[in-house]
């Protein structure tokens, strides 16, 4: 058993269950798979956890033995074979389907042709530098950043799996692509956009995005909670718990409330299409040279123009406050958020 897996198991078994909402809970994540148990009794929680952990490890050992005869020695794995395993076992369980589809497409187009049949252990820091320079030469700034991130994760998994001793990119500075700020819709463009959307199947998806500023990947998590729209804050997806944000129903969104309630009855169906489909729908209805992400920029711009406080807008947009005071001590009340939300009227 790999040493890193031994350490994970040792730490997990030694750690006491946490008490949360009157229930004891204990969990551990191994290769993207979460093993957990909960009970109102702490001893019962421990017993259940050990049973499930033992069952998982038995399955893991059995699977390894079954595949052992079919696979070459892991030390001789090619980069292509190992990266395929990483996408299937790790990355698939950490990202939403649209992100997985995008990452796979970029990886197969740019990274695999360069490293594909190379032995995993033969890849050096110089190879990684050559690849990044090759990509930068194409002028694909954001794609280079995406490739850099994916390559680092695959190689880190190889280190964790003890297939290579040292991460070839450990000493390399992370690549950051150049970002252009979005351009908000003008008020005339906004009115024309809404007129074009009226009565269409996906009208409320774009109305919600325009009047709440939520990210495209957060749309499927939208629900109504009294005077608020609640959605998962995907900016904080790496936290151990799911974080939600609350955006008040502003005077601009309120006229659409009945339509929204109707749409939410079959929201899963409405939000089930690919991201490229919604981008195409946006372009079909929106005047001017805009991207769908400009809806988020438009919301932030209108909030500032209407005099809503910066702290409230940060909370609605799901941004992390920039100061220690904001991160630790500032907890905005619903009353305050609603008061600021009423200002967003134009």
Describe this structure in words.
It is a single chain. The chain is mainly alpha-helical. It has 3 domains: 3-68, no CATH class; 74-160, Tyrosine recombinase, N-terminal domain (DNA polymerase, domain 1, Orthogonal Bundle); 187-341, Intergrase catalytic core (hpI Integrase, Chain A), CATH 1.10.443.10. 52% of the residues lie in helices and 9% in strands. The chain is built from 15 helices and 6 strands. It has helices at 3-14, 42-68, 79-89, 97-115, 125-136, 141-160, 187-197, 203-212, 257-264, 267-270, 275-285, 294-305, 310-317, 324-329, 334-341; strands spanning 18-20, 23-30, 33-39, 223-225, 228-232, 244-248. The strands form 2 sheets. It has a 3-stranded antiparallel sheet, covered by helices on one side. Strand 1 and strand 2 (23-30) form a beta hairpin. Helix 4 packs across helix 6 (141-160) and helix 8 crosses helix 12.
Summarize the structure.
The protein has 346 residues and is mainly α. The chain has 15 helices and six strands. The N and C termini lie far apart (63 Å).
Low-confidence runs = 68-73, 323-329
CATH superfamily of the largest domain, by name, is Intergrase catalytic core
Strand order of the largest sheet: 1-2-3
The dominant shape is: globular
What's the structural domain tally? 3
Number of helices: 15
Features of this protein?
three-stranded antiparallel beta sheet; mainly alpha; single chain; hpI Integrase, Chain A; 346 residues
Question: Secondary structure elements and their pairing?
Answer:
Blueprint: H1 3-14, E1 18-20, E2 23-30, E3 33-39, H2 42-68, H3 79-89, H4 97-115, H5 125-136, H6 141-160, H7 187-197, H8 203-212, E4 223-225, E5 228-232, E6 244-248, H9 257-264, H10 267-270, H11 275-285, H12 294-305, H13 310-317, H14 324-329, H15 334-341
Helix pairs in contact: 4-6, 8-12
């Amino acid at each position: 058993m790999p040493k890193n897996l031994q350490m994970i198991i040792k730490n997990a078994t030694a750690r006491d269950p946490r008490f949360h909402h009157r229930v004891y809970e204990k969990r551990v994540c191994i290769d993207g798979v979460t093993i957990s148990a909960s009970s109102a009794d702490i001893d019962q929680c421990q017993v259940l956890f050990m049973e499930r952990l033992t069952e998982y490890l038995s399955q893991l050992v059995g699977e390894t033995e079954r595949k052992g005869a079919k696979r070459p020695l892991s030390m001789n794995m090619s980069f292509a074979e190992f990266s395929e395993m990483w996408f299937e076992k790790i990355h698939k369980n950490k990202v939403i389907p649209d992100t997985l589809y995008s990452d796979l497409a970029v990886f197969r187009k740019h990274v695999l042709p360069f490293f594909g049949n190379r032995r995993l252990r033969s890849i050096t820091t110089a190879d990684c530098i050559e690849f990044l320079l090759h990509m930068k030469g194409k002028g694909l700034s954001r794609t280079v950043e995406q490739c850099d991130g994916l390559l680092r994760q695959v190689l880190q998994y190889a280190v964790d799996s003890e297939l290579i001793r040292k991460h070839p990119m450990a000493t390399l500075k992370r690549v950051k692509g150049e970002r252009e700020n979005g351009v908000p819709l003008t008020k005339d463009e906004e009115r024309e956009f809404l007129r074009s959307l009226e009565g269409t199947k996906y009208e409320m998806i774009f109305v919600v995005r325009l009047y709440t500023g939520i990210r495209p990947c957060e749309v499927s998590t939208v629900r109504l909670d009294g005077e608020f729209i609640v959605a998962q804050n995907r900016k904080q997806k790496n936290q151990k718990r799911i974080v939600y944000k609350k955006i008040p129903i502003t005077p601009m969104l309120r006229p659409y409330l009945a339509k929204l309630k109707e749409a939410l009855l079959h929201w899963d169906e409405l939000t089930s299409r690919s991201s490229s489909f919604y981008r195409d729908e946006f372009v079909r209805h929106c005047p001017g040279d805009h991207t769908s992400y400009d809806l988020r920029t438009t919301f932030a711009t209108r909030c500032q123009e209407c005099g809503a406080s910066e702290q409230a807008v940060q909370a609605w947009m799901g941004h992390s406050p920039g100061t220690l005071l904001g991160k630790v001590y500032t907890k905005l009340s619903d009353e305050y958020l609603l008061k600021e939300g009423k200002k967003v009227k134009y």
